[in-house]
Amino acid sequence: MILSSQTNSVYFSAHLANDYRQLYEAVKSVLQDYQIHVDVLCKTADYWCRDYMPIQVTDNTFVKYKYKPDYLNKRGKHEFITNVDEPLSFLNLNDNKFINLSDITIDGGNVVKTPYHVLMTEKIFIENPQYQNKLKLIYRLEKAFQTEIIILPWCNRSQDKCGHTDGMVRFVKDKELLMADYTNFAPRNGKRIRKILEENGYIVHELPLPYTINDSWAYINFLQTSKVILVPGLNLKTDSIALEYLQSLFHSQKIIQIPAPYLISKYGGAFNCMSWNIKE
């Protein structure tokens, strides 16, 4: 399994580069300072390329899937569904590199990789009702990702429209994970998530924010590469708390914080959402 900590190239939607030029240039500058290749994806329909671009499994294997999320599969939203074949046509990726799951709807933001598992929420079942037998769906996913799948609850559905794991939990090292500050805003849900992860052998660290803030999940939604981690800032006092805690966990990697409060509050996406990082 290719982890974020092994990646050396990062791609962004051309729309993001054009519409949020200052943020894009700030992110690009830091990545290039650490010898990370940066490029843009053409022919995308929105900023959030994590969700529709193929998921890298090995050096030469990517999982390609159906991208038709429920939150965009409605009147007035279809124009924001990217046909992934269009941005892929500009890249040097041969068809033989893809494992095709064209009958399975997945959001890339609902795929958090560790060396031992892929973490997804139960939204994977809701968006694929054609699989009445959930075990068959899990089998297809595990065969494609070449690892076991752990299913986490999709909590706070009225507020969390996406149901993505990349704002809930992230891999740290070995069998250590970082979880959002559920104690502040959804303690029961946090306990459920922690229990499942600990039953699978993980040590779970919770982001220790002193009080509830809007968009605290964004601190978990960082962009990690082989050389540097970029953490979103919300222009709040908690920015420094989150940064210092991440530095204590990822002490072998350089961590840079870049403010992006407007993008995060307006669209509900942060740095992992807006990037596609791979090992080339």
Main features:
28% helix; three-stranded mixed sheet; 25% strand; L-arginine/glycine Amidinotransferase, Chain A; alpha/beta
Describe, in plain words, how this protein is organized in 3D.
This is Agmatine/peptidylarginine deiminase. Keywords: Hydrolase. InterPro entries: Peptidyl-Arg-deiminase_porph. GO terms for molecular function: agmatine deiminase activity; protein-arginine deiminase activity. Pfam families: PAD_porph. By secondary structure, this protein is α/β, with parallel strands linked by helices. It has a single domain, classed as L-arginine/glycine Amidinotransferase, Chain A, CATH 3.75.10.10. It is 28% helix and 25% strand. The chain has 10 helices and 15 strands. The strands form 5 sheets. A 3-stranded mixed beta sheet has the order 2-1-15. It is globular, with a radius of gyration of 18 Å. The mean pLDDT is 97.
CATH architecture: 5-stranded Propeller
Q: How many separate domains make up the residues?
A: 1
CATH fold naming: L-arginine/glycine Amidinotransferase, Chain A
CATH class: Alpha Beta
Arrangement of strands in the largest sheet: 2-1-15
What is this entry, summarized?
28% of the residues lie in helices and 25% in strands. By secondary structure, the chain is α/β, with parallel strands linked by helices. A 3-stranded mixed sheet has the order 2-1-15. Strands 3-4-5 form a 3-stranded mixed sheet, with helices on one face.
